[in-house]
Design brief:
Diaminopimelate Epimerase, Chain A, domain 1, six-stranded parallel β-sheet, 42% helix, inorganic pyrophosphatase (n-terminal core)
């Protein structure tokens, strides 16, 4: 693996660059991708952001969002850009398997690869790495890349600051997760000083519900929430039929699992969603309970201790029933 310091020299001349992130990208994935995009454009590079799939409408106000290419919509062009790139930045994911079909083309590309991420157990496909699990968000690492590694804080304008603030805000649960250290607050304060409008950004991300999305949230809390007091756990199960009935779009289910976790005394919250070809899980926990261990051990996933995800090719009923076996195994940890 090459020293990250040598990347500055590599970027001294204009390069053809691709930035990519994980499927169904969230605020951190898009904030870090477009924050880096806006920085590299200022430096004179030719840059393309390619997402493996579409992403929520409440993130599409981000500066230069109109330049983003969705792989599933422009497959041939995306493959060509990956194949001819000098450098590929891989943001907010730790393995090329995570980016589906696109991962094969990234692996085969002769471009140098840069991993910037904060998730556990990176695969090791990259040539350069800026990685630590202590970072609250990949957007924090992009800030540190620009300021510390490149020594170019002066390039962070309002557009870059707004993107990076969005990434940090969303991945820290509006600065309430344990990962929100004093250093994170100092970075956020600097981003505000550099032009990020914190009030406006919060409104654009969190106060942009469609009527269907709000009614769907009410349905989930009233009819789908299952509280298991013996295990200090709560589960919400959503079927494909319900997604269709409420005309749910990408991103509309984001954050629902946190409502279950907000119940007094609940230590583990589980959201199970039936998609077209797979059942997806979002798992959240409090304290030292390892949400990521459950996802890794039983559901082909992983993540952070208090925020993880996974999937299953079994039926949604089977996935729900599986927790009847899993929770007793963790009962001591949950009720301690």
């Amino acid at each position: 693996m090459l020293e990250l310091t040598s990347l500055k020299e590599f970027l001294a001349e204009p390069k053809q660059i691709v930035i990519t992130t994980h499927p169904k990208p969230d605020g951190d994935a898009m904030g870090s991708s477009l924050g880096l995009y806006n920085y590299l454009i200022l430096k004179g590079h030719r840059v393309n952001v390619i997402t493996p799939t579409d992403y929520p409408s409440f993130l599409q106000w981000l500066p230069n969002n109109d330049k983003v290419m969705v792989y599933t919509e422009k497959t041939d062009e995306s493959q060509h850009l990956v194949a001819t790139a000098d450098l590929i930045f891989c943001l907010d994911f730790n393995s090329l398997v995570r980016i589906d079909e696109m991962g094969n083309y990234v692996r085969e590309s002769k471009a140098k690869k840069v991993l910037i991420d904060h998730h556990l157990e990176p695969e090791g496909f990259e040539d350069y790495r800026l990685w630590t699990t202590s970072a609250c968000a990949t957007a924090q690492l992009i800030y540190e890349f620009i300021v510390n590694e490149m020594g170019e804080r002066q390039f962070i304008n309002e557009e870059i600051a707004s993107c990076l603030y969005t990434g940090i805000m969303t991945d820290t649960g509006s600065f309430r997760f344990r990962s929100t250290t004093s250093n994170v607050h100092r970075i956020v304060a600097d981003l505000i000083d550099l032009g990020a409008d914190n009030t406006l950004i919060h409104q654009l991300v969190y106060d942009d519900f469609s009527e269907n999305r709000l009614r769907f949230l009410g349905h989930c809390l009233l009819n789908k929430l299952e509280v298991l007091n013996d295990y200090k756990s709560a589960i919400i199960v959503i079927t494909k039929q319900e997604l269709e009935e409420y005309e749910i779009s990408t991103g509309d289910t984001e954050g629902i699992v946190n409502y279950a976790l907000s119940i007094t005394g609940i230590r583990l919250a589980i959201l199970i969603i039936e998609r077209t070809d797979v059942v997806k899980l979002s798992v959240r926990s409090t304290g030292n309970f390892p949400a990521n261990e459950i996802c890794k051990k039983y559901f082909n996933g992983g993540g952070h201790k208090n925020a993880a995800g996974g999937f299953s090719d079994q039926s949604i009923e089977s996935v729900r029933e599986k927790f009847d076996l899993i929770l007793p195994e963790y009962k001591t940890q949950l009720i301690e």
